[in-house]
Amino acid sequence: MELLEGEHAHADLECLLTLARRVGLELDCYAAAAVMDARARGASWKEVGASSFTSATTASARWSQAEVRRLFERRAASRSAGRTAHLALVPAARAGASESVLDEAALARSRASSSLSCALSFLLRRSGLSMQEAAHGTGLSRSYVSKIVSGDRVPTWPAAQALAQAVGANAGDVRPLWEAAQGLAPAPRPSLEEAVARLGSALRGMYLAAGCPPYEQVSRLSGEVVPPAVVEGALRGEVVPCWETTSALLTALNAQPQDLRGVWDDVNYAFLLCLQMPLHDGAPPQFGGEGAG
Fold it and tell me: Can you give the pTM of this predicted structure?
């Protein structure tokens, strides 16, 4: 997307080549993820080599655990610096693409703010508390609570946390929505456990914003792409669907999939680095479908 924006804005050659290298890195990571998925399903290096038109020896060297780890570390570093670098590389006189990037970021914050107010409004209705009772339980004014649930104000985190707790909800489920509404980036390269937990919280936040429809209804809205059991497992943090399934789930919840793509990518990245599940006691989350989207 950024490469196309740079091209349309007539960015200089240095900018376009930098963006092209980033696209190449994304493709390399996609190939590595596909190979790791195939290996996890039992594919031999001979089969991988045949699919990539190389020998088994070359394939095993190109996609060894150490090489894949280095590749995804480069990708993480590139992503953390890429947005700032992109804005700096596009000349001011040709900044149309940069402005569109900023516009999209503003739209993402606006969508998150709307989802946050919808989630808190739904939780308040479900609790059966009046606006005054909720305000009394939080120590906030009734006017402020009204502005929060109506979407007129993006609350501070202590206010959002207090309101969620006052209506009997898990404040952690609305934390990702609040962070996105504030334009805050999550901590870079979280552990697998942290990444899975954050994805589950983000999905539950979107589910709350949608009014917690029955799992069967969500499945129907996804065009039966997401079975009810997968809906439940994803919301519980027990299943990490492939990106296509996650995207269909978010669309069914009336959310924009791209708003959570980075959160899903963090899980995929952490999984590929660990190549195991060092989680707390209990059944680890199941990864469904293709690992890379």
Answer: 0.61
